[in-house]
Amino acid sequence: MGYDLHITRASHWTESESAPITLPEWMEYIKNDPEMRLEEVAVARVKGKPGVEYRSKGLAVWTAYSGRDPRGDMAWFDYRRGRIVVKNPDEAIRAKMKKIAAAFGANVVGDDGERY
Question: Which residue range(s) make up the domain with 105?
């Protein structure tokens, strides 16, 4: 399990569909941010086992992430129900999330409702 942070226009991430960032808005943002790339598929690999795929139309990766490792660690930004979600973000990813949130007139909110 992990802890998610959400980029949302709503006061709490659970209400994101009431004030959504739309999928077309998110796709346009990705297209115009040279540090972001639409992926739509993430694959988790464990030695000796087949990969597990996760698919999402709004799944993007932050290519300029300093902790990026093509064999593992990636900064994934996933569009879900009117918000963008990142699991277990470090300080650098939180800073990128704040920049993205500013572009949408949104906030970065944790699972427990705290604002970043």
Answer: 4-110
Query: For the segment 14-28, what is each residue's pLDDT rounded down to a tens digit?
Result: 999 999 999 999 999
DSSP class of residue 37 equals E
Lay out the sheet containing 107-110: strands in order across. Answer: 36-38, 59-62, 76-80, 83-87, 4-8, 107-110
- Residue 71: the pLDDT is 62
Could you tell me whether strands 76-80 and 59-62 are parallel, antiparallel, or unpaired per DSSP bridges? antiparallel
Better-scored residue on pLDDT, 29 or 44: 29
Q: What is Dmax (Cα atoms) for the chain?
A: 44
Residue-level pLDDT at 72:
62
Count of the separate structural domains present in the chain: 1
Residue 29 inside a domain? The answer is yes
Please tell me the distance from the alpha carbon of residue 107 to that of residue 12, in angstroms, as a whole number: 9
Identify whether 116 is part of a domain. Answer: no
